[in-house]
Amino acid sequence: MSAVETVPGTSTPSRKRSKWDEDEGEDEQLTYVPQPKKRAKPKSIRPAPSASENVDSSRSASPSGSQSTGSTSRQKPTHSVYVPPRTHHPPIQASRSVYSYERLNQIEEGSYGVVYRARDKQTGDIVALKKLKLEEEKNGFPITALREIYALMSCRHENVVGIREVVVGDTLTQVFVVMDFIEHDLKTLLGTMPAPFLQSEIKTLMLQLLSAVRHCHQNWILHRDLKTSNLLMNNRGTIKVADFGLARRYGDPIGVGGLTQLVVTLWYRPPEILLGATTYSTAVDLWSIGCIFAELLLKEPLFQAQGELEMLSMIFKLLGPPTKNSWPDYSSLPLGKTISLPSPQPHQFRTKFPYLTSAGLDLLMSLLTYDPEMRITAEEALEHPYFTESPVPKHPDLFGSFPSAAAGEKRRKPFNSPTAPRGANLNFLNDSNLSP
Amino acid sequence: MATLYPLASLAQIENTPSKQDGIPDDLEEDLRAYGCKLIHQAGILLKQKQVAVAAAQVLFQRFWFVTSMKQFGVGDIGMGALYLASKLEECPIRMRDLINVYDLLLQRASHALVGKSVDMFQYHPMSYFGNTFYDMKDALVVAEMQILKRLGFNVHVVLPYGTLINYLRVLELTNREDVCTKAWGYLNDAHQTPVYALYQVPTIVCAAILLATRQLQIPLPSEPPACWWELFDADWEDVWSVGGSIMRLYRKRTEEEKNRVVGLVNKKDVRSWLEENAPQAGSDSTSAMSVT
């Protein structure tokens, strides 16, 4: 959590904070200052520590001794940051009922289920409720939903959509994931906004995206479906990575047990997966980020291919076909020998992105690199000179706000043009409409 | 920093749901341990990875802090926990395999219950047209869902093995293979106790090292102000209590006690046991009520 404070380009937290964010920053303290945990439900309230029993309070919460024994006169050692006090751990708590929320409107429906906008009856917070489809499941709770919930819970970050809880309905097949409601997704926004993002804005968005992905990778989670429609954006200039439906844990060594190639939306899919690799890694997410970067610059997706072969040829065209130097392992990939490479030619980055600075172009090319081993990592990308050269990243608070399609708001027309004089036109319209 | 794993609250520890239903402490303890043994045995027969088995046992132990054994049997919940943990650890198993293995384990246990020797045991596979499989499958699906629901889908588990290796390195004990093996074994055995749902991993690892080094008579700095466990953010009382929980596993049980546990794998058996032993259980619960 301490990373939250150092992330570049995070917005100042909005004043309206949910009861779920309260503990942020506390973890940074080295010594233990007891605080009544508000998160706990009344059922499990711990003895409220008073100032005088400062030292003993965490001990009394520990299962061993509720009373002070002889040796408690000894000063309790201060805890290191690696082992927070026991009281910081959440209690074991059952899911609440979905009736804690009031359904407002449907946001979207996908293969995974339906998403609703809802209001928390207790706090009044607006949230997104995602109903999981469980009826046709033959193998118990679907592993994909399990991965998504697990990934969201273990990757809490300023730029990852926040999971609040998982609630249940009356039967065992009704499960809803409760997430923060975010007004926009980047894809719809790019399609409707009047002018493209400025360089300074793109830098801020990229920094946020990269720090979210770095955080996921640090927690051993691959996203595997990064694309603009999975990036949500609020009206305070902060983007949140969402939809961890294809995410999964990975280990070291990577890909034990094999990974599926049926991941990442085609336009954002890296060449190694297109060529059938089963032991891919964090680099797949970085390729997708490269595609997103290009899309922010172009205001339209970079590779709009119909099929996998067309996708590969588009990549070959932009990057130039892979060579022994640019991708040593190319020929050892399952499909590496079956595809005939076009004749060698230089890359086309400069012609495609004529207005990008050389630092920006370097970052883009480092992300869209053939060899996954040579592709830049999220950690390295965050240190790229592109982000420090002028124009510097814009502070998120200075971003404009947009009408939210998900909340049912409509873009207001920039101006209302005067209507034509009534009398004259009416006759004309009537005439033409009446003739059959 | 990653999200912290959940631990039982003080109220949950003092008054477990099973206790509220009149199940005595020692019986709950033994049933927990037996459920975990079944998970372990099933894991071995399925050639499942130890990480999945250990994670299943942790989830299993957490479950009984929010649910009474009168409501669900330790057999079903153990099966559900192993199925769920296998998905979480990215090594899913087939329902049919798991059900077959549990059927075998339970048949073998009830065979021993009537006093026959293990050599005489012969497994009778479930009938192709019978309902056993479908009943067990339904129970498995319900168990998995109930675990998820009652744990609030917070199924984050942190296993202790990596921490043990680090601590043994710090204590310069890695060259003593006997210490490593013993401490590792205590960590595994601790999975049959509720400690992973009660204490933080460093405390449990310290207890395992404490037991191993005491048994092998290896002195470690233990006088204030230089106590080795303080280096790892553990409190002596907690370490001692975890050690006690682990050692209680090895306590001699009478035949009667052993059979009682094996006979109470199902919730139906637990319910009828509670009816038979109601007067005693009733007085227990009332005395507990008057204390609190």
Automatic annotation (TrEMBL), chain A:
InterPro entries: CDK (IPR050108), CDK11/PITSLRE_STKc (IPR045267), Kinase-like_dom_sf (IPR011009), Prot_kinase_dom (IPR000719), Ser/Thr_kinase_AS (IPR008271). Residues 101-387 form the Protein kinase domain. Coiled coil: none annotated. It catalyses: L-seryl-[protein] + ATP = O-phospho-L-seryl-[protein] + ADP + H(+); L-threonyl-[protein] + ATP = O-phospho-L-threonyl-[protein] + ADP + H(+). Keywords: ATP-binding, Kinase, Nucleotide-binding, Serine/threonine-protein kinase, Transferase. GO terms for molecular function: ATP binding; cyclin-dependent protein serine/threonine kinase activity. Pfam families: Pkinase. One of its GO terms (biological process) is regulation of mitotic cell cycle. Residues 57-75 have a biased composition (Low complexity). Residues 1-97, 398-436 are annotated as: Disordered. It comes from the Eukaryota. Its EC number is 2.7.11.22. One of its GO terms (cellular component) is nucleus. Residues 427-436 have a biased composition (Polar residues). Belongs to the protein kinase superfamily. CMGC Ser/Thr protein kinase family. CDC2/CDKX subfamily. This is cyclin-dependent kinase. It comes from Crepidotus variabilis.
TrEMBL record, chain B:
This is Cyclin-like protein. One of its GO terms (biological process) is regulation of transcription by RNA polymerase II. InterPro entries: Cyclin-like_sf (IPR036915), Cyclin/Ssn8 (IPR043198), Cyclin_N (IPR006671). One of its GO terms (molecular function) is cyclin-dependent protein serine/threonine kinase regulator activity. Signal peptide: none annotated. It comes from Crepidotus variabilis. Residues 25-155 form the Cyclin N-terminal domain.
